[in-house]
Prior knowledge:
By secondary structure, the protein is of the alpha+beta class. It contains eleven helices and 36 strands.
Amino acid sequence: MDYSDRLRIIENIVKAPLFSVIGFTLNKIIYSTTFEGLRSLWFMDIESKEKIKIAGAISSVSNVMGDSPYLMYTKDITEGREQHRAFIVNLSNMEQYEVDSLTPRRITSICFDGEKFALSSSTEKILDLWLIKPDTTAEKLYEANQIFFATDIEDGKIVGQGVLKGDPRSQELFIFDIDTSEFEVFTPKEGSTNKNPKVHDNIVLFSTTAFGGEKLITLNLSDRALVEPKLRYDDYKRYEFNEYLDFDWDQSGKIWFIVVRNGRTRVFYDGKLIELPEGFTHYFVPAGDKYYATWSSLTSPHKILCIDNNTGEIRVILGEELPSELKNLLGKSKFITYKSFDGLEIPAFIIENNNISKPGPTIIYVHGGPWSSVNDSWNRMIASLVSSGYHVVAPNFRGSTGYGEEFKKLDIGDPGGGDLKDVVYAAKWAKDNKLASKIAIMGYSYGGYMTFLATVKEPDIWDAGVAGAGITDWEELYELSDALFKQFINLLFAGRRELLAERSAKSYIENLKAPLCIIHPQNDSRTPLKPVLKYVSKLLELGKTFELHVIPDMGHIIVKVEDAVKILFPAIIFLRNKLSLDIKLE
């Protein structure tokens, strides 16, 4: 396989459009897609099937409500530095207005009740909460030095979640009364984790660990009574799951929720199981006698499905298949667990290339976050690696989401500690189980950090490493961060500032043995380029083997298809050269 073959593979994978259903209003499905090469906002009329573009190059979008024609979206106006402007569109006449009174800032969440928008954001120095009306009037309601996100608004109340009592291992709810400007912090039990509050008819629905495991519970805002929600069906009781991925009320007050177990999901509506293909349902929208869902798997790109409530029939209404030559290369995804250094069971996905032998060249793919996970859902980096001739092991190291709050909390106060050992033991598993011959590590964001650290703290394991948008120096990163990411670092390290240098790759740079490919966006405001350039300068001084690729006019988030190619192509060519790989397409 020559360079042109590899480029064609990557282009075919990253050009497979991503789709995400956002909501249903005015007999229209609102969705986003990368069909044009970057994320844009569209609607499709259910009756005529006409598709109309609302806006291009969007960063985020609000929910839609009932028959309200309004929604809000944001755009990054700084070529990747994540300084956003907000825009309001009236879908009934397609008029759009910029919210001029809101200066550019990192917008972290938007919610809508049909009449008003609530928005949380971060500046260099503060995190704040805003109320915005469809006429673009904007009013700052609250500001703090704590991480919080607005998740819903209704009848003069804004609700959300955050680390609001100073304990990095707990999350509390907040209830903001717009009339009185009171910001109330609520938790059913000190030290519990409470997430994703949604309000309907003065009742807040949220998930909590206050009563053991993770449960859905409702809070009556009138008397503060806590009650388990009543569901018509109890299908969900027969399905074991680790976490709630998402949930909400519909307009009639029925509850839908998506649960996740071992990287795959189930969807329930009013407690009844909605039959969907095996894989991962990212979002669910009830709309009368139809349901709409975003679905994907590790071997199949995003699709928007329409489910008939009466017949159970499932139709793909938006989505594309991979070319057959790529589908033939992608083997089945397999979920496994393996024991780490301390006996903890670590979940992982294995994706094999159908055309190479075992043992064969293998990549340990490390996800970002760290509070994220690799699921049985479409991942362009993993698909590109497998299609280019590698087996992939994707560990969900301690700190990953989807395996319960206690598993997630294991990373707090210990980044680059137990989680790094989990990744090392993934490489050991791949060797012991005769999957891997040569072995490389690759990751982006927190995965890039883990790549930098793994190659200098465990230098004898790796034949190569690819670090994308990674972190080499936590101390300098803290100084360069805005209010949100300063608080993120404080939370991740549980205030243990003495660990910042100890868990930084720069402290062990002399140990590097494996060739290293460094790929970094020039305009990254989450993991800035400056500390990485210092790391590169030291690598040069030490005579280490490395490549450096700086991607201009790009930030941390991969927005454009061409940016994904710019990251993946040099990575694939580097791995080919260092792992001495060649395969042929059948």
